[in-house]
Design brief:
homotetramer; about 270 residues; mainly beta; Acetoacetate decarboxylase-like; twelve-stranded mixed beta sheet; 2 helices; 12 strands; about 5% helix; about 50% strand
C-alpha cells in the first residue's frame, strides 16, 4: 500500500513532492498596477468570467513556505521560491474576481502546489530588490524615496521588468489581488482522439485563511514586457502604469472552492 | 475563447507549456540493472501490480525533443533536458511490466509531459559522461573499455551515482525497460476533507511508436544510492549490481492506454 | 584604446565584469562559531600566519551590492548573491587576524571581486532561512526562540549545514570575523616549468569602511560538514559548536593592505 | 605548508579549483563566420594588435575535460561545461592571430582555467543542438541538410543566437580560429590610487598540442546579437554572415607563450 498526497506515492508516504495541506506562506511583494488593451485582455478570460476592467497587476514575490509536519524553512532549499504572477480584473456572476493568465515559479514543489490550485505555473527566474535592516548605499529604504526593481526571465530571455519608487503608505492592496483569484484547474488527457477532453477542467476559486499584511508602501512605477517567442504575455503589456507597491504578506491555504465544471470539450489550437 | 493543450491556455493557443502530441524524443542513455531488497521493492507497487522480481533498473538520459509544429531543437533551451528514471519489475494481469516509483527531470516542459503520462516527475540534476567523435583523453571510447559515469542530485544533495565500463555489444536492452511502463496518472484534490479523493487516479500504460535503438553496449557497473531526507529512494538501493548499459533511443509518444480507474479513496499518510 | 577595471576590457569600458571600487555591500548573516582539530586547522595557514586558536567560524550571507555608477540593486540579478565563508583564528606579527581557507559564492561578479581581494572563491549554492516582517508559521521570529537554518552545496553535493536557535542579543560579533581577514592574493603562471612560480603571490589584509552592524542575535547552534571528494573542508569539521549568530552588516570596500610578497616558488602537490 | 596550483591552497593540495596542467579537452562546436563594422571591431583590440580584417567568428561549444590525475569525466558535473567564444581577426607583428573580446562559460573551473590563459571569461548559459546516433525527428542529421541552433544568455537575457544549415564537408576550420588566440592576461590591483596599475598585464599567445579535428561540416547560417545593458558585444553584431560550421575538436593545454608585458598603467573609464 502506497501513501502520499501527491506523486511520488510510496510505502511510508514521505516522498510526495508536496504533503497535504495546510500550506503556510510568507512573502515580500513588489507589485505594479497597470492598464492593458481592453480587447486583448478580455480575450484571455475563460468561460464563466467576463472582463470587469482593463486594469491588470503583476506581482513579484520572494516566498518562504512551511507545513504542519516540520519547520520546512530550516532547510530553505525546500522552502524558498520566487514567483511572478499576472492578474486580470474579471467578474464571476457579477462579483469582481481576479484571474491569472500567467505565473512563473522557480521550484518544483511550488509548481505542484500551484497546479493543484489551478495556477497555470511554469518555471521562470524572478529577481527582486531587497531592503535590509542596516543603512547602506546597497539597500533602498523601505519608505519614502526607496527604489526597488524586479525582473522575470523565462528560458534565458528577459520577459518583464519593473522599477518602483515608494512615495507613501497606502491603506489598500493593489488590484486585482491574488488572494481570492478564480483559476482553471486543469489536467490534460493523452488518449488519442481525446486530447480535447481534459480529465480535469474546473472553474475554482482560491481560499486562504490567516492572511496578514504588513504596512503597504505605494508609489510610482515603470514596467516593460518584452517579446518572447513562447508566450502571449506581450499581448498584456502596459498601455499605462498606475502605481507600484511593496508589502509583505502571510497566508495559509488548505481549501479550494469548486465553482463549476467547465466544458468537457476544449479547443486546442 | 482560450485554447491550448495544457495551461496556460490563451487566445492564440501559443502559450501552453506543452503542445498536443505527437512528441518526438531522442536520447543518449546510461543504465544500470541491479537487484534490491525483495520486500522493500514490493512495497512500492500500486494497487493492480504485483512484484515480478527484485530486479530494478536506473536510467540516466540526455534527451532532445521536438514536435510537429516546429523544429524545437533549433532553440535547444526549449528542447533538451536530462532525466533519471528508476524502474521496478512488476506484473499486471500476469503480464510483465515495469513500474516507475521515482523520476527526475530538469525542465518544466518535460515535467508536464511526464505528469500527463503518469510519470511521478520532480526536478533534479542529472549529469552523464559523453562520448565524442574525436579521440581524446577527455572522452571515453564508445566501445570495449570505455568508462562512463552518471549522477543525480536533488535539492543540492547527491542522491545516486554510477560508473560503467563497456565490455561487449548486447542484443537486449536493460530490464525493466521504460518503453511500456505502467504508471499511476494522478491529480490531487484540494477541497477540504477530500484530500484523500484524488481528481484523477488511474492505472495507465505508456504507448510509444517509431522506436529506434542504436547498437547497445553492455558492461560492468557500480552504483550507489545515498541517504536523502526527502525521498525513500534509498529503500531501493542495490543489493547487487548486474550490468551497465549505454545506447541511444528515439521514440514518439501520442497515445496512452487506460488500464483502469484506481480506488477513489487513498491513504495520504 | 580599451578600458576597464577588469576583463573584458572594451572601447567604452562598460563591459568589465566588475567596475572599479568603491563596492558597497549589505547582507543578512547567519554564523556559527565552533572549534576544530587544532593540528588540522594549523596546517591550513599560509606562510606568515600562525594559529591563534582552534576557534573557527562559518558565515552564510545573502548579499546585495551596488557601486557609485548606478543603483545596481535595481537590476537585482546583477546585484544579489549568496556566500558561505569559513574563517580561522590566526596571528600575523602577534596581531590576531582571521584567515579564510574556503569561500563559495553563486555569481561571477562576486567571484571576481573576491579573487581581486585574495578570497579563494569558488561557485557554490548557499541557502538560508529568512525572517519576514509579518507574523507567520513560515517565518521564524527575529528574536528569542527564532530558529534559522543554512546550507551549502557544491557541485550538487551538500557540504555543510547548520541550525541556529536565537536566545539573546549580543554585544559582540562572532569570532573570527571577516571584516579584516588576511588573504593570499594569488594568480597562477601557465608557462611550462613555471607552474610553481605564481605571477601574483601576496599576503594582504582586507580593508573596509562605513561598516554598520544591526542588532546581533546569539544562540545555540548545530553544525555538520559532510564528506566531499573535491575539498578538504571536512578536515575543518566541528569538534564542538560554540554559538550561532544572526545579524545584518553593511560595508564598503575600496582599498587593500599589502602586507608582503610571499615566496616566489610554491608547492603544487 | 599549503599546496596547490590555484586557490584554495590547502595542506594536501587536493582542494584547488583547478589542478596544474596538462588539461585535456574535447568538444562539439557550432561556429559562425561573419563580418562586423570595421571601425568598431578595430576599437576592441588591445595594444600590440592591429586589425587584420573585419571578419569575426562566434563559437558555441559543449566541452568535456579531464586531467592526468583522474578520469574527471566520470564525475561529469566536474568535467562538462558549455562556452560561447567571440573572436576577431588581428595581426601581431605582421602575423595573423585571433583575439577574444568576449567569452562565457557555465562552470567555475572552466572560468579559472580561462583567466589563467587570459581568456576574459564570465558566466553565461550556452545551449546548442545535438545530433544523435539514431534516426529521429528530434535530431538533425550530422550531414547535408542538418539544421542546428545555438544561443547564449547572460544574466537571464538572451544575448546571441544562430541557426545553421549544413551543406557540405569543408577542408578548413572557421576563421578566426581559437587555437592560437592572443589574449591579455590580466589581474587587477585593489590598493587605493593604484586601480590603474594592474598586477598582471601581459600579451600572451595560447599554445595547444595534440589537436584533433573531426570532419568539418559547413553551410549557411543566420545570426543575431541582441541589446544587453552590461556588454558591448552588440557593437560586434553582424553586418553580414559568411558561413556556419559544425565539427568536434580535442586539444591539450599545458603551456602559454608570453609575448610581452603591456603598459603598467591603464585606462579604467
Amino acid at each position: 500500500m502506497i501513501k502520499g498526497y501527491t506523486l511520488p506515492r510510496t510505502p511510508k508516504g514521505k516522498s510526495s513532492l508536496v504533503p497535504s495541506p495546510p500550506w503556510h506562506y510568507v512573502g515580500n511583494v513588489l507589485a505594479v498596477e497597470y492598464t492593458a488593451d481592453h480587447e486583448k485582455v478580455a480575450a484571455f478570460l475563460p468561460e464563466g468570467l467576463t472582463l470587469a476592467s482593463n486594469q491588470c497587476a503583476i506581482y513579484f514575490i520572494e516566498w518562504q513556505y512551511t507545513n504542519d509536519l516540520e519547520e520546512v524553512y530550516l532547510d530553505p532549499v525546500c522552502s524558498q521560491y520566487r514567483e511572478t504572477i499576472v492578474l486580470l480584473s474579471a467578474s464571476y456572476n457579477d462579483t469582481p474576481v481576479s484571474y491569472c493568465p500567467f505565473i512563473w515559479v522557480d521550484q518544483d514543489k511550488a509548481l505542484m502546489r500551484g497546479l493543484i490550485q489551478g495556477w497555470p505555473k511554469q518555471m521562470g527566474e524572478t529577481w527582486m530588490t531587497r531592503s535590509y535592516d542596516v543603512d547602506s548605499k546597497a539597500s533602498p529604504l523601505l519608505g519614502k524615496g526607496g527604489r526597488f526593481g524586479a525582473a522575470l526571465s523565462v528560458g534565458g530571455r528577459r520577459l518583464a521588468e519593473t522599477k518602483i519608487t515608494l512615495l507613501e503608505e497606502s491603506n489598500s492592496l493593489p488590484s486585482p489581488a491574488f488572494a481570492s483569484a478564480v483559476n482553471v484547474r486543469y489536467f490534460p488527457e493523452l488518449i488519442k482522439d481525446k486530447y480535447d477532453k481534459p480529465s480535469v477542467h474546473q472553474l475554482v476559486q482560491l481560499k486562504s485563511r490567516d492572511v496578514r499584511i504588513s504596512s503597504i508602501w505605494k508609489g510610482e512605477a515603470s514596467m516593460e514586457i518584452f517579446h518572447h517567442p513562447h508566450t502571449e504575455l506581450p499581448d498584456l503589456k502596459p498601455t499605462s502604469v498606475i502605481a507600484g507597491y511593496r508589502f509583505s504578506v502571510a497566508l495559509t491555504v488548505d481549501d479550494l472552492i469548486h465553482l463549476y465544471n467547465l466544458k468537457q470539450e476544449i479547443f486546442i489550437e
